[in-house]
From TrEMBL:
<dbReference type="InterPro" id="IPR002035">
    <property type="entry name" value="VWF_A"/>
</dbReference>
<protein>
    <submittedName>
        <fullName>von Willebrand factor type A domain-containing protein</fullName>
    </submittedName>
</protein>
<dbReference type="InterPro" id="IPR036465">
    <property type="entry name" value="vWFA_dom_sf"/>
</dbReference>
<dbReference type="Pfam" id="PF13519">
    <property type="entry name" value="VWA_2"/>
</dbReference>
<feature type="domain" description="VWFA">
    <location>
        <begin position="361"/>
        <end position="541"/>
    </location>
</feature>
Length: 541
């Protein structure tokens, strides 16, 4: 009987991967490549497709190393076999170019961004190698190169078949090198070894023939200037793609830590989702709302200093006592000042800070009736404005001291299940996307949605005692409210102490007069491009 270890040793010359064209000082880079290639199936597919189509293994890996490694170095042309010269020509055209340097500023040390850079370049790289593969057959050298590429493809295919046969044999003995493999599987592996050996011999003969025919330089029949231009354009395209991904994530408030918790495939799906369909339409408006809300929060004094209660030791330069300021003004005493500053031994005023009372939740009640799909002169829909405003309110809730809970009640004829963001938990990105994508359509019926919002505040008040909550209604419809319901609503407001604001959106919106009976403030927004029209709302809340 034949042991698995014996078969693995016999197959080793054909199953080991070729050395990278790009080498680095850190051998761990290759381990990171293996991990990201396993996680990111699209990246592995690119590598497999290029290898199967052109017989040039490792192109995706080399492009990834060039984008990821801290100091990538290209193998000398004399060390590269003829079949891989097209790949080296592409890498040589990229490395050191201004476009590739811009790309590396984003991708160096980040395996995911380096993988995205490879995927962004894949189509251009495939087209360049395709041109090389279909070079005119006018000379003996070109014909020899074509035969060499075909031989390399066959060599790659037989090596892949050998790996499959060897994997099947390993599975039969649970990977035990001392396990005895059944004879039929031994025969399969031996036959695959013979095929791989023959293909390797044919490839070696083709390589020798190409060398004797003077196969040419790195460009391999393709004009060097065109290779350089196309390779640099591919790097620039990849850099543009990474910048666009980062911009979309920033507009949606996606934190780096949230991305790092996702695997490569999940990050790819998220990137596509944020830049396509409804989410892409909302992205720019959401970003502008968030910038405006941040600016408004910065105008408020959240942490005003309290009263002075004494003197203590510390390093708060804003609280230095006058004697320390005098010492700082004397050049001879500055060194001593620096030492005491480093040791936190400066005399500073001891202050008693202001205690901040916890506030109740912010709840956005968002009209999702059919009319909210209308748009203004700028092409901005009522839905986009409402949801961008709601996500900016979510940011304000998280930035409060202490953080406030947030919920969104989307409604039309009936309210949807509230989307809740608890104050003591990180914001769930999936919930943000659900808020943006969900749109039930239908009519506009206010009482059930407002009752749902009040029930959330009632539950919060009973559980935590937090009052001073805020409800923001965003709609383009008129409120048809029965006097009995209005009386009940006012009783709830008095008991829970929450405020109610209303924002009507679009120049097509109904008269908001009916909302005056239940709101502290009602404002009408006709120009949906103007995010600053609601700026004072963020200062108030």
């Amino acid at each position: 009987m034949t042991r698995l270890g014996e078969l693995q040793a016999a197959a080793a010359p054909w199953t080991r991967r070729p050395a990278p064209l790009v080498h680095t000082d850190d051998q761990a880079d290759l381990a990171v490549w293996e991990q990201i290639a396993d996680e990111c199936t699209a990246l592995g597919d690119v590598d497999t497709a290029l290898t199967a189509r052109f017989g040039i293994p490792g192109v995706a890996r080399d492009l990834w190393l060039a984008a990821y490694a801290r100091s990538p170095q290209l193998l000398d042309a004399g060390e590269v076999e003829d079949a891989r010269r097209p790949a080296r020509a592409i890498l040589a055209a990229q490395l050191g170019s201004p476009e590739h340097r811009d790309l590396r500023r984003l991708s160096t040390g980040d395996p995911y961004l380096a993988a995205m850079a490879v995927l962004a370049q894949a189509a251009v790289v495939r087209a360049m190698i395709e041109k090389l593969d279909k070079a005119p057959q006018g000379t003996a050298g070109q014909r020899a190169r074509a035969k060499l590429r075909q031989a390399r493809r066959e060599e790659t295919a037989t090596a892949a078949a050998l790996r499959r046969a060897l994997d099947a044999a390993a599975d039969s003995v649970d990977g035990d090198p001392d396990g005895e493999v059944d004879q039929p599987q031994v025969v399969d592996v031996q036959r695959a070894i013979a095929d791989a050996d023959g293909a390797a011999a044919d490839a070696a003969a083709a390589a020798q023939a190409a060398q004797e025919a003077d196969a040419g330089e790195d460009s391999d029949g393709l004009d060097g200037a065109r290779v350089r231009a196309a390779a640099r354009a591919a790097a620039a395209q990849a850099e543009t793609e990474l910048v666009a991904q980062a911009a979309a994530a920033t507009r949606w408030g996606v934190e780096p830590g949230q991305l790092e918790r996702l695997d490569a495939n999940e990050r790819m799906r998220l990137a596509r989702k944020l830049r396509s369909g409804k989410l892409a339409e909302f992205a720019q408006l959401i970003g502008r709302f968030r910038q405006m809300a941040t600016a408004q929060r910065s105008r408020r004094v959240e942490h005003a200093k309290g009263e002075y209660v004494g003197v203590t030791l510390g390093d708060d330069l804003a609280s230095l006592v006058p004697d320390e300021l005098v010492a700082l003004a004397v050049p001879a005493l500055r060194a001593q000042f620096a030492i005491r500053y480093a040791d936190r031994q400066l005399m500073v005023y001891d202050q008693r800070g202001v205690e901040h009372d916890a506030q109740g939740a912010i709840i956005a009640v968002i009209d999702c009736s059919v009319s909210m799909t209308n748009d203004d002169a700028h092409g901005i829909t009522g839905e986009a404005y409402a949801k961008a405003l709601a996500l900016a309110l979510l940011d304000s809730a998280r930035a409060a001291t202490p953080p406030r809970a947030f919920a969104a009640v989307l409604f039309s004829t009936e309210p949807c299940e509230p989307i809740v963001f608890p104050a003591d938990r990180p914001v769930d990105l999936a919930d943000q996307i659900q808020l943006a994508e969900l749109f039930p359509g239908g009519g506009t019926v206010f009482p059930p949605a407002l009752d749902a919002a009040a029930e959330l505040l009632d539950a919060e008040f009973n559980a935590t005692g937090r009052g001073r909550a805020d409800i923001v209604i965003i709609t383009d419809g008129a409120a048809e409210l029965h006097p009995t319901w209005i009386a009940s609503w006012k009783q709830r407001r008095h008991r829970l102490g929450f405020r109610v604001f209303a924002v009507t959106v679009g120049d097509w919106a109904d008269d908001p007069a009916d909302l005056d009976a239940i709101c502290d403030d009602v404002r009408r927004i006709e120009d949906l491009h103007d995010t600053h029209a609601t700026a004072d709302l963020f200062r108030t809340i």
